[in-house]
Structure formats: C-alpha cells, structure tokens
Amino acid sequence: MEESIARILTELEEINQIPSTHTQSPLISPSTLLDLQSLLSAADADLISQFFDDLPSKSLSPSSLTNLLSFTMDSSPSHYLLASKVYLSLLLSPNSPVFTLFTPISFLSLLRSLRRTFKNRASSQPEGSPPSNAPPNKKGKRGGKGRGARGNVRSSGDCSEEVSDCFDIKEVFNVFEMLVSVLGLIHLDRFPDSLKSLVQTVCEIPLMAMEKIVNSGSFNRLMGLCSRVLSGVLRTEHGEMANTAAEVLKALSPLILTAKSQARSFALEFVTQRMKELGNESDGVKKAVVNFPRYLAQKAPEKAEPRALAVDSIMEVVKVMDFEDQIGYLDYVLKMTHGKANLRLLGVDLIAMMLMSLRDPFGVDSEIKIRDYWGTKCLEALIMRCSDLSAGIRARALSSLAQVVGFLSSDDRNKGVLKEVMGLSEDGEERPQCGMNDLLRNRCMDEKAAVRKAALLLVTKLISLLDGSFDGILLKTMGMACSDPLVSIRKAAISALSEAFRTFSDESVTTEWLHSVPRLITDNESSIQEECETLFLELVLDRVSRAGSDCSPKKGSASSDSHLTAKSLEREMELLFPGGILVLLKGICNGEVTPWVKKICTSLGKKKRLKPKVAIALQNIIKTSESIWLSHSMPIEKWTAPAGAWFLLSEVSVYLLKAVDWEFLHHHWQLLDEHGAKGKFQSPRFQGNGYEDEENIESNSVAWAGDRVFLLQTISNVSIELPAEPAADLAHNLLKRVEKFDMHSTEVNAHVKALRTLCKLKSSNPEEADQLVLRWGHQLLSKAYAILEKYISDNKEPNTSNSFFTPPRSGSRKRKRAATMSRLLSKAVTAVYTVGSLVVVCPTADVSSIVPLLYTVVTSGNSDPKLNKLPGPKVSLKQTAPSLYIQAWLTLGKICLADGKLAKSYIPLFVQELEKSDCAALRNNLVVMMADFCVRYTALVDCYIAKITKCLRDPCELVRRQTFILLSRLLQRDYVKWRGVLFLRFLLCLVDESEKIRQLADFLFGNILKAKAPLLAYNSFIEAVYVLNDCRAHNGHNDSKNSQMEGRLFSIRGNDERSRTKRMRIYLCLLKQMAPEHLLATFAKLCAEILAAASDGMLNINDITGQAVLQDAFQILACKEIRPSIHRGAASDTAEVEEEGGDGASAAAAKGRAITQAVRKGLIQNTIPIFIELKRLLENKNSPLTGSLMECLRVLLKDYKNEIDDMLVADKQLQKELIYDMQKYESVKARTTAAEAVASMQNQSVFRSPPCVPKAATETHPENNLNRKLSSDSKVASAMADAAAEATARSVLREVNKGAMTPPLNSISMPKLKSNQGGSSAKTDRPLNVLESLRRRIDVEN
User: What is the C-alpha separation between 923 and 886, in angstroms, rounded?
Assistant: First the structure.
C-alpha cells in the first residue's frame, strides 16, 4: 500500500507541475484514481494520515488535490464518475481535513458529473426540465475548454458522445449513498449556492434517469436515494428549513407539472408523504408545503392537457393538508377566479376538483349547520364564471358545473343545497333574479359552440334537480339547438331534450321533443339519424308497448251515468295509461310530426328493429278505449279511438303483418263503415251531456274520418295475410263505396289505394293485377264522367234568379232544385277528386273523356271570345262552385304529371292562373303542381321560374311559405339554378312579415346556401344593393327584363328607418356568409361601384333611390360585419368546440390577423380620395348624406387615429373635421354613459332596501356588469366622476339650504369696484398690449 501511496504522490506531483492553460488542464489518470479509491476504501486511518502527511513533501496540499479532482470530474469523459467517488471517499475518510477538502467549486463539479451521467448521447436535457444551475455551468464552460494532460484532453462534446459507454448503475448507487453520508458531515448553511445546486441536481436526475434506466427496480432504488438526499438537506444544520423546503419544492415543481411519469410520481410522493411528515415536526416545512399549491397554480401551463395534470397534482397536495389549510387555499382559489384569464380558467378547474375530491363540501354531515359552507362558495363562484367574458372560461365553467352536479346529486342530501344555490328551489329564501334558467337560456344561445355544448350538457345533468318544473323558454331553446349548424351541438341538444323527455311526462316536454328530435331523421349526419331512430324506439315505441301490454280490455257494462262527460272518460283513460301515453300518441299525429314519424318507422322496419309487441299494444289500447266507452253504456257512434293510435298502427303494420289481428280490423271496419254509411259519421246526432255543440260534432266527425283512413291503410298493409274470400268481399265493398262519390276527400285516396292493393293480392301475376285495376278504374271514370257532365249541362246558362246558392223566397220547386244541385255539386267535386286519385295509382288509365270536361270547368266564364264559342257553361264556376273549380285544377295537374304531351299544352295555362287567381287555396295548389312539373318536366318549367317566384310576395303567408320551401328543395336538388333574379328575390324572405319564413330563410342562407354556393353572396352583393332600393343605375339591373311593377314588388324602397333596417338586415346576413378575402373584395367593390359612381356622376344622387343606395353603402362600410375576422368561414365543428388550439394554430391566426389588417388598411388608404371627392360633391349640393359620409369615415378611421394626418394629407379641412368629430363623439358618448350610470345609481335611494341578489348572481347582475364596463374606459370613468361630483354638490347644497332655493345674484351683497375710466392716471395702454400679445401667442400655439 505504501508503494501505491508513492505512485499516487509521484503522479500528483508531475500533474501539479504542468501549467494549466485555457486549452488544457491537468487530469488525474485512471490508474491513479483507482489507486486512490483503493487507498480510501481500505479505511485505514494510519495510511490515510500518512498520505495526507506526505502531501507537503511533494509540494502538494489537500486543496490542490481537490482542484485536480475537480478538473478530472469536469473533463474526463469516461472516469468522472470514478473521480466523483474518489472525492466523496476523501471527504468520508477518517481524520480527513473535511473543511479543507470541501469547496463550492469541487462540490459543483461533483454535481455536474452526476448530471452528465444521466444525459443521453444528444447531450440535451429532456423537454420540460429546468435549467441546471446557470452560474456554475458558466464556470464549467469557461474552464472546460480543452482541459487535459498527456493525451487526456477531452472537450465537453466528446464527453457527451461517450457517456453511455461509461454508465454503471451500481457506481451511481455508491456515489449517492456516499453523498447522503457526506451531508451528515458538512453543513451547507454556509454555502447557499451549493445547497441550491444540490437540490436542483437531485430534482433533475429522476427525469433524465427515465431514459437511461429501463429496469423499474433500479429506477425505484435510485428514487429512494434521491429522496434520502433531499430528506438529508431538510435539516436545521443546512440552513433555515423553511427556505430549504421552499427551494426543494421549487425544484420539484417542473417534475410535478410534467406529463404522467415515474418522475412525477416520485415528486408527488416525496411532497405528500415525506415532506408532510417533516411538516409535522417543523413549522417552516409545513408552511412551505401549504404555500406550494399556490406556487403550482402560478406556474401551471395554459394548454388544456398540461393544465389538467397540474390540477391533479395540486389536488394531491391539497388532500394531505389540514382542513384549515385547505380552507385557506380555497379562499385563494376563489380570489383567482377574479384575476386574469389564465388564473380564472385554472380556478374553475380547481373548484370543480375540490368539490368532487374533498369530503362533505356542503356540511351535511356536520353537526353545526353553517349557511355559507365552503362548498356553497365554490358553487357560487363556478356559477359566476358561467357568465365570464371569455368564451373558453364560460365553456369550462359550464362543463365543470355539469360534472359537479352529476357527482354531488348522487347523494340526496346534497340535492337541497344544489337547488338552493342554483335558484331551483321553490321555497328558497334567496332566488336569484338571474337564476339558473336565465343563465342556461343565455348560454344555450351563446355565439360560441363550446359554450352551447357545455350548457346543454349542464341541462342534462340538472334535469334530476328540476322536479318537473321545466322552464318553457329553456325547453324551446333546447329544441332550437337541435337545428344547430354544428353536429356536436345537435347531438348534445338531442341528449339533453331526450333526458328531459325520459324523466318528465309533461305535455310541454313531450310536444317539444316530438317537434325537435324526430325531424332529425333527415339530418345529413348518419350518426344523428341512427340516434334519432334509437331514441324514438326507446322513448315512443317501447313506452307504447309497455302501456299496451299492462292494460287489458274491460268486459261487461257498468251502469250509465247521466252526468258522465268526455273529460271524465279522458281522465279515466289517463289513469289507465299513465306516463303521458295518450299525450304522446296525440302528439304523434300532429301534422308537423307525422312526416318524420313515417320516415322513422320506415327506416326501423327496413332494419327489422320493429317488434310485434308494438302492434299488439296499439290494438290493446284501441280495444281498451272501446270497452271503457261501452262499459259506461255510451253510444258507440260517439266513440273515437285515442288520437294517434290508428295512425301509428298503420305505419308499423307494414312490417308487422302477422301481429295485426284480422278479426280486430274487420270488427272496427264494420263499426266505422256502418255508421259512416248511415250518415251518422257526417252529422252525428248526439244526445245529452256536452255532446250537442257543433264543435264537438265536427271534431268527432273528423276523428272518425281519420280513423277510417288509417284503418284502411292498415288493412291494405296486412292484406297479403288476409284469406281470399274476405279480401274479395272487402274489395267489392270498397268499390261500391267509392262509386257513390259521397266520401270525404281524405277517404277517397285510402279507398283507391286499398283497392289497388287488394287487386294485386287477388291476381296471380302483375299483368292480371293491372288489368283488374284498369277495369274498375274505367268503371269509376265512366260514372265520374256522367256526374260531371250532368252538372255542367245543368249550369250552362246563368241563374238569373240567383236561386242556386241562395234559397228562394218562395216556391217548393226552387227549393227542391237548389237541394238537388247542391247534392250534385258535392258528388261532382268528389268525382273529380276520385279521378285524380285514380290517375295517381294507375297512370295508364284512359282519361281522354274527362280532360275536356275539366278544361270546360277551369275556363268557364272566361272573357276570351275564342273560348266563348266552345260549348260549356256561360257562368263562371269559379264564382258559383269554387270547390269544383279548385278540384278541377288539382285533378288536371295530376293528369298532366302522367301525360307529358298534355302537360306541354297545359303548363302555360297553369302559370296564367297562378298569376291572376285571387283564391289563396288555389294558388297554393298551383305552386305545388308547378314544383312537381319542374321535377318531371324541368325544361318546360324553367322559363316560368321567375313568375313562380312572384308567389314569394304573395299576400297569403301560407302561399309564401309553401313557395319558399318548394323552391328551396328544387334548388338543393339542382332542378333550379341560382341565376337571374331568383337569388335576389329570395333575399326578401329574410325580412318577411312571418317569423316562420324568416327562420327558414336564415337557415337556408346561413347553412345550406353557404355550403352549396359559397360565392353567391359575394358575387351578387352589389347588385342586391341596387335591386333592393329599386335603383336602375346598375348595369345588371338595367339589362333585366323585369317590369317596373315587378321591380317594386321585390324591392324595399324608401329612406325611412323601417326600410333601411330591413335592407341592412339582408346585407348583414350576406356579409356573414363571406370569407375574409371576400369581405375585403366587397369593401373595394362598394367603394368602386357605388361611391366612385356617385362621385363621377354615374349614380344620380338627386334621385331618392340613388340617395338610398349611397346611404346603404355608407352603413355597410361602417358596420362591424364587413371587418374580416381570421376565424370566419374556417371554423369547423372540431375547431369551434375545441377549447384551445396549439401554438401553430395561434401563430397562424396571428399571422392571418396581421395580413388582414394590413390589407384593410391599404384598402382604406386607397379609398380615401374617393371619400374626399364625394364629400366635396355632397357639400356643393347641400346633401343630407354628408353626415352619413362623415360618420362612415369616423368609424373607418377610428383604428388609425395616429395615421390620419398621412391618410388625409390631400384635404386638411376634412382631417380637422374628422378629428373634431371623433373627439366630440367620444366625449358625448362618455357623458351619456356616465349620466345613465349615475341616474341608475341615484334611483337606488337610501330610503329603499337594496335588491336581494345572492352571491351566485353577483357578477351576472346588470349593475355589476355596468360597473365593470364603466371602469374599463378611462374617459367614461372621468365623465362619470364629474357627473357624480356634480350630483354630490347639488345634494350638499340642498342639505345646506334645507331645501331652500339659491338666492338670486342681485340679492347677494358684493364689493363695489371702481371703474378705470374715472381718472386719466389709472388709464394706460400697456396692460392692453400685454393681453393682446398673450392672445396672439395662444392662437399661434393652437
């Protein structure tokens, strides 16, 4: 061993004699390091003492040995871990001069060697790790350039390349164990930088070690050693424990805020367990741990996923804190919700997690009941953030509140507190003026999709708390959300509304669901269609199945009650069928719902998802209703089945043939047919007890007619299952009934369709079936011809006595003739309708004999001389028999649909009648026929589209709505193109008097047209401005062939406020459809084609229409919708609902905004000369439009106040006027706002009690919103202060004067002043000259 000591001393002496330069530093060789390690590992105190005693003989000292080891730890690429071990062994060796050997520089070199051990080949720190002790690194870089001796020169880059080759995990464990032992010898309170570096290094190692150590056991052992090092640091001998603990937590925070990993788990475990234990012994450590969540909140990232991890980490720490400390942190979080946007967002997440993680948030388990428990405060703060200015925070608050409500409502004891805080309780002491229903209504209509979606999710969670008291307006809002443009919003709305329907059987909820959800079966998104089918199956068909299976028909009869009413029977039925089944069935047969129900049943049937128990249940419901009626000895002719039962059975029976009982159908057909044939169906004679009024008779009659139609449809559906003989008898009976021509039109179609189905059943092949249909069809046509010809022949001459419709004054013969003609007219109308129904089911039927008669009817009484020569009635059947006249047109249209040659001749006649008819019902039918013609004969109808569009301005709302819907469908299916005047005429539907038409137009332009023809609004915008004002100065308008009358019909002429508002609404709707680049182009086109045309004299501004066009242009240029937004037109469903985008998206958005603003600024600069020239022209003509021009310029240039001098260099006068106008506008606006605010505050007098507004509604209260708005504007705040001071001064004066008026000025004694005109000595010119010079100076400065 003495030889080893000699070798060590000799080499150390040689190395020490080598001069250290900037490029090279002396290094200890590996062999020497191994000898040193062997010496120190022997732990022989005598040998070690001898080694230290021999150092001076070689001109060495312990400090020089430490320096050499530091150089080696910093520079040796493959032995710095060995050098570190030697250095630590020196410190731990017996009788070693510890205070001499330990220096901050050598200790930092040791820490650097530990970090380099875990670095990978790229020598780069993992993302998210903190910078490693900057000051020591700088020294290492300066001293590490080219260090080495005798071939041991290595650069730092070379070292990093060979790191993985010299990595030995066992050596690392030894170094860490020795480091733990060293911490017991050395007190680092004198070396704060070394302490800080040690803490940072140990906290960096777990993150770097994850990439180097694959073995989980080795990694866990390393984490244990790191924990021992950090625990060793947290002792009093290393300094103030509070400061050390804060340093440790600060260094661990990057690990805690990273993604989930073993390093993060180590950091959280150390904080929540080890430091918690140390906190029980030291108040300083406890204080640091308590403040640690606050530090994490300040360092939490803003992106969604990292922020969520930060919230989880914070909650892990908060959970181990004492209750008092948790409440303290809760107060801090509540304050965060009033801070900056990122803190408010984090506060919302933390509040939600605390409510769901901490025990008993509302104190329901506490013996002492506290009104404002901590959970109540959190809930109120969360509700406040639901009305935040930031859309992201609003959305996050709503979704968090939904999670909290869903979590806490699982405990019934929390429901009462939730209701009270949210203002949903009926007997709560504090019910917010802006309660939860108001909040949800506003958020469900929010402009941001993420907010709407979160609000609908919250509604879904709150349904369990509502107890049946569902807000009607909120219900309507949810129904409107089912038509939202975004798929995700529609899905959320469907889920919320369906949950309400699933929970409540209220009639309003049922009606809203039926009108909102089933219609989505036609949605473009297939997933929504499937969800619609599933919900209908669950919430409608399954309910009906359960209700029908639970009931059974009552047999026997009860005693008749003379005072029994229909309402009492309805109540009995409702008790028998609970859950709103009758309301549900009644809602299904609503005219607006039936088309969607038919589509859903068809889709479910094709997918074989309909179950036989649905049909069985519907039959049971009908049987039960009949048996209850008979059990009270009520006459059967007054009975009607529950509304909707027959309809639903007719739809499902198509796919459930074997589930429908023929005896059931036969019984009810005999019942309905028997009473209908006797005439009791048309006019039943009821006796007693509320059945004598005509309204009930009529409604009962209509119900019987509808039931018979649906029963016939059901029979047709299941006819394939009928025996041959009953089918033949049924067909014979049906034909006899049709031939009588005495049925209602709704029954005719059902009878004819049932006849065709039965003929197909009786026939062995399709040809035979067609022959059978043609045979009885010819028979029907012959009888219809005879009836119609007889009626026409009896009305050839006008009835001068006017006894056709008006009963004669005397004479039984005239009365008999009038009755006969009335019956004949009724038969003729039914016969004509029957012909049309027959043509629909059998297009090949020969109607050549009927067409001339129909032509005679539709041209009767025509003033055309050519038509008067034809045989026929001289009177106008349009006046005498309007029902026959309308049915003749309808049947003629059906015949034309089946015969193309006939259609070619008759289509112009249809168009002519559409233009001149004064009957709204006929015009409506003609529009429907023209739409069918357009599909069948597109080329023939295309030239008449402009005339059809005139019905968009029809005086009847039904005709306008029908025309709009039909033309919209044709446009979507490309049967009609968006060309010519069609688009411009559709624009007026946006401001139609009917709200339904306006909603349809908004949907067409905002959704369908935006996707199908995105450039249409841009290309037609300028022309729309001219056309809506009926101004003929535009080229496109001048070349149009429209007459002046049509131009006025499709324009909104006038310069009044109402007309301008309507036109502006249309303009804004078009601007919202444009992309940013099209908005900029539209801005340029407005200036070039309207403003420049006016300044050049091409647009006559003396004409009222020219002035209106120019004023509209000024308003459009000044509106905010024409300002491009980078998000417009490019936000998809995913991007809209996504809470936050990535850095790339933010950078792209910023770049886009910069480009857009630059282009817009350039446009404004280029259009300034046009404004200047136009202003001069308007001033010369003393035009009232000058004010509109100045207002437009003020709005355009308000964002460029600092550049007005450069933009308006050509007109200094205009520049001054604009600056003055801007200043005046802002000051007037500030004074007005301040006066309103002060007035509203004065209204809240001290003699009135303040409004009771709970904390949950504080920020949503109008007064607080106003205060925030006022405080954000300095000018408004200043004006408000002046107004408040003035009001205060007046109140003080009134108080001083005790209500007395201020005395007049002449009654106040004032000192008298002598006039300077009294003596010449007092008169001098000098003061006047001085004043004049001051005035001139002020003028020059101004």
Answer: 9
